[in-house]
Amino acid sequence: MLMMRRFKATRLAGLILLALSLVAGWQVTVIPSPPVYAEVGPHLVPGVSAVFLTLLALAYLLADRQGLSVDASDDPDERPHEGANKRLLWYGLGLLALIVLIPIAGLGPAGAFAFAGIAKAFDSRRTAADLAMGAVFTTLCWLLFAKGLGVQLGPLVLGLVG
Q1: Is the pTM of this model over 0.90?
Q2: What would the pLDDT profile of 142-156 be if each residue is shown by its tens digit?
């Protein structure tokens, strides 16, 4: 009979992170190359990110093996933050806003609502200011990538700015 070894949560998290980094590395290899010569192709940033994610996973697993990683769930004095479910709900709603609103309203409003929802998950009480900051940040990112680098992100505001 095989005995299953109980994994510590930190080791399991490290193995999941390593698996995700390997999937990311594989995905970099299937990115099609551009038809024209480019000094920096579409593989550079995702490839560097995959390498750093792999190094992070290996460092995390090494720290776990040496007993250096701390798991707060093992500490009897630790308990979840108050309202953890509400925080997770706001975070999820922020991400859902991004997915749902991009095809309906464009990247600008979607990014603003996503920013505000995620800020609310971190106890922000300034919803109007968060919407404004999200709109400014999303606009700056859109200008940098869509106009500066020529990356196709879709319209900033559907029907108005594209």
Answers
A1: no
A2: 888 777 777 777 777
